[in-house]
Design goal:
By secondary structure, the chain is an alpha+beta fold. 57% of the residues lie in helices and 14% in strands. Strand 6 and strand 7 form a beta hairpin.
Length: 397
């Protein structure tokens, strides 16, 4: 007697039971994989964003911490300013090896002078920059010239063009940065000289000019000297440079990390509830099925089938249903999180990076395994009970 054929016949012979078990496996796999993709992707985005910034400390105007973090993480443009004189004060503090200024700008909303709307623009100083410049030297063998820019992973020039128009100024796109899943992917980076040139041209070519306050910067990225104490340098900046707030790299995006922690707790609770209910439902369905099929299974035992064969046939049936339901669930989860990524980011307020193909395959296999384990665990006790029932008693009931 073929074990697989018997299991498949039992599945097709009881459509309602099969649908219920398959649906439970589907829900377990769908929910487990989708939440794992989002939470793991969010953590990867934060880690890559910190790596892309490459700064031990980011100094911003006092009170602008949340806006700067939101701009960097979500790509929402912001304009914050502090005096250029702060740069020299920060650079002279013991323990600071490099202090590099940046300007945070944005495109005009819906203006014809811009190829894109509401894009976060970041100007950097090539003489001191230690985040973009090293990467550019590896990719294009040098830095950016006047009128050149580098875009995030999701920044593209119009079709049949190498330029992206900003305030009536044609920026030549040289290359795209690797994806981080954060707002840096939809940002445009160029030098201070290019920023000032855009401001000059925008006076005559843009609907509204790009205004850059004189002798102002938006933030200072700090690289510490070897052996310098992070907390001590941050405290010195706070004491010696009025009107600024130093954000230490471990505390960067702290509000988003707290939000992720709260979301993770909620997700774990919901996952536990769904898993418990699914296992209970599957156990109930298999218990009912075993009771309904007691005569059939009694006949199998009377014809020579061993207890082990009956037990394995029931578990094989559960395994088939778990694989089908779980397989459909993980495919749906992967497709949904990929297609509706922007909607999910907007809804939860946290960016996430979709994993690479090898990582995705491992997560899919993990989701299927979880569904298989859940269904099998729920079916073990009913299968054991019915397989150990005396054939004569089962046939008389």
């Amino acid at each position: 007697m073929n074990l697989t054929r018997l299991a498949l016949r039992n599945i097709s012979g009881s459509a309602f039971r099969s649908w219920v078990v398959g649906l439970c496996a589907f829900l377990v796999a769908l929910f487990a994989l989708s939440t794992t993709l989002i939470m793991q992707g969010a953590e990867s985005s934060l880690r890559l964003a910190l790596g892309r910034l490459g700064a031990d400390i980011v100094v911003v105007p006092q009170g602008a911490e949340a806006r700067v973090e939101t701009a960097l993480l979500m790509g929402i443009p912001t304009d914050v300013w502090m005096p250029m004189g702060n740069l020299q004060k920060i650079a002279s503090i013991p323990g600071v090896q490099v202090a590099s200024p940046q300007l945070f700008l944005s495109t005009l909303h819906g203006a014809s002078c811009c190829s894109v709307s509401d894009m976060f623009l970041v100007a950097f100083d090539p003489a001191t920059d230690f985040t973009i410049q090293p990467w550019l030297k590896q990719k294009i063998g040098g830095g950016l010239k006047l009128g050149e820019a580098v875009g995030g992973a999701y920044v593209f020039t119009p079709e049949d063009s190498h330029d992206i128009e900003t305030y009536g100024y044609a920026l030549n796109m040289k290359v795209n940065l690797e994806a981080t899943g954060t707002g840096l992917d939809q940002s445009l980076f160029f030098t201070f000289d290019t920023a000032r040139d855009i401001a000059r041209v925008s006076v005559t070519k843009a609907v509204a000019p790009l205004e850059i306050p004189d002798n102002s910067i938006s933030a200072v990225l700090i690289k510490l000297a070897p052996g310098a104490n992070l907390n001590e340098v941050a405290a010195s900046i706070l004491q010696q440079v009025p009107g600024v707030t130093p954000i230490e790299s471990p505390n960067m995006f702290q509000s988003y990390r707290e939000q992720m922690t709260g979301l993770l707790h909620t997700v774990l609770l919901m996952t536990g509830v769904i898993l418990t209910l699914s296992v209970a439902m599957i156990a109930l369905v298999f218990s009912m099925a075993a009771f309904e099929r007691r005569r059939e299974l009694g006949v199998l035992r009377a014809l020579g089938a061993t207890r082990s064969f009956v037990f394995r046939s029931l578990l094989t049936e559960a395994g088939f249903l778990a694989l089908v339901g779980g397989g459909i669930g993980v495919v749906m989860a992967a497709l949904a999180t990929s297609l509706f990524r922007r909607f999910i980011i907007t809804s939860i307020g946290i960016p996430f990076l979709f994993p690479s193909l090898p990582s995705l395959i491992l997560l899919i296999l993990g989701g299927i395994l979880l569904a298989l384990m859940s269904v099998t665990a729920a079916a073990v006790l009913p299968a054991y009970k019915i397989s150990h029932t005396d054939p004569a008693i089962a046939m008389r009931e």
